[in-house]
């Protein structure tokens, strides 16, 4: 069954186009990894898909309904973990969950049971009486996720839930997402960490500048760049290297400069390493060279000529 679909959706913020004719189908049981750099349009996509923001063109369908997709009944079938952590700091963890469960219409014994289950599910079973002010960023985030789960949504949307949290909580969240899927939840997960997508997504959707530029399973996407080789050269003075001249070397497909690192994508078997290095060394000192196996980052790099994340960005 199609859980959600967008057809030709266009969303503008004054003259800026945030969603540029977006088509997306999400099937029951999928974990969609929505991958894109800052400003790609991921949050805007979520906001239009959930009816939080109006859009200029196109159609959204939720749970097979296109006439009134944002009905209360449909909204109650969804859970949203927003980019900003939204928990009440003056309430205990358990009271937070009771509040959100109440918003979704849960009552009495059922509400109590679901609250305890949600706490357990995110690994906060023994922290219910604690105030979130005493929590680490990762624990707060897990509480925030639990708040979106008490009503057992069929479709859970998570907007960059692991930004700025410790690796342990991050792994916990990724495991939680996988468990939710096993329990029948469909998930849309946005991130700019390709490792996360590689770990959990059943399908990857890559966005840039308001457009979906590629989709497929991790394996399918990586196959598209397997005819390419990637080399990273760390240099002392990257700015003095003439990128245009590098791009003219036979076999070179793309050259990207990021901090003090030059990434060069070439066709497999180009045998152009010597020429590349000779040219680079004419302009700067070389500190190190590495060749990597292709990954999702390379798919993005090949498609857009940009890194998913800037060097040094969290
Ligand atoms: N409320 C707003 N008013 C004006 N422009 C906006 C607004 N929200 C988003 N935009 C613009 O729309 C584009 C898409 O932004 P969006 O937040 O959807 O991207 P994103 O992929 O979620 O980025 P991030 O990873 O930083 O959250 C950006 O150019 C952004 O500046």
From TrEMBL:
Keywords carried by this UniProt record: ATP-binding, Nucleotide-binding
Protein species of origin: Virgibacillus profundi
Name recorded for this polypeptide: Export ABC transporter ATP-binding protein
Pfam family, one: ABC_tran
GO MF annotation list: ATP binding; ATP hydrolysis activity
Phylogenetic placement of the source organism: Bacteria, Bacillati, Bacillota, Bacilli, Bacillales
SMART domains recorded: AAA
ABC transporter domain boundaries: 4-234
Signal peptide segment: none
């Amino acid at each position: 069954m199609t859980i959600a679909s967008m057809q030709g959706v266009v969303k503008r913020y004054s003259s800026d186009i945030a969603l540029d004719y977006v088509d997306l189908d999400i099937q029951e049981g999928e974990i969609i990894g929505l991958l894109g750099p800052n400003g790609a349009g991921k949050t805007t996509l979520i906001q239009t898909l959930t009816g939080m923001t109006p859009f200029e063109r196109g159609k959204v369908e939720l749970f097979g309904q296109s006439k009134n997709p944002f009905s209360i009944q449909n909204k109650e079938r969804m859970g949203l973990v927003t980019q900003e952590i939204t928990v009440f700091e003056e309430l205990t963890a358990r009271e937070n969950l009771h509040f959100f469960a109440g918003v979704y219409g849960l009552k009495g014994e059922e509400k109590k049971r679901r609250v305890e289950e949600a706490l357990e599910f995110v690994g906060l079973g023994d922290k219910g009486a604690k105030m979130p002010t005493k929590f680490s960023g990762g624990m707060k985030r897990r509480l925030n996720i639990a708040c979106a789960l008490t009503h057992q949504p069929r479709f859970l949307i998570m907007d960059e839930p692991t930004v700025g949290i410790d690796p342990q909580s991050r792994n916990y969240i990724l495991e939680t997402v996988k468990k939710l899927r096993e329990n029948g939840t469909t998930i849309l997960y946005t991130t700019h960490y390709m490792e996360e997508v590689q770990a959990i997504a059943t399908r990857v959707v890559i966005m840039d500048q308001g457009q979906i530029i590629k989709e497929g399973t991790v394996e399918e996407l990586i196959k598209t760049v397997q005819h390419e080789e990637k080399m990273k050269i760390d240099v002392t003075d990257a700015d003095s290297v003439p990128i245009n001249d590098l791009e003219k070397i036979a076999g070179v497909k793309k050259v990207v400069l990021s901090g003090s690192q030059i990434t060069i994508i070439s066709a497999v078997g180009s045998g152009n390493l010597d020429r590349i290095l000779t040219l680079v060394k004419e302009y700067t000192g070389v500190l190190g060279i590495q060749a990597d196996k292709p990954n999702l980052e390379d798919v993005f790099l090949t498609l857009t000529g940009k890194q998913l994340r800037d060097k040094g960005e969290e």
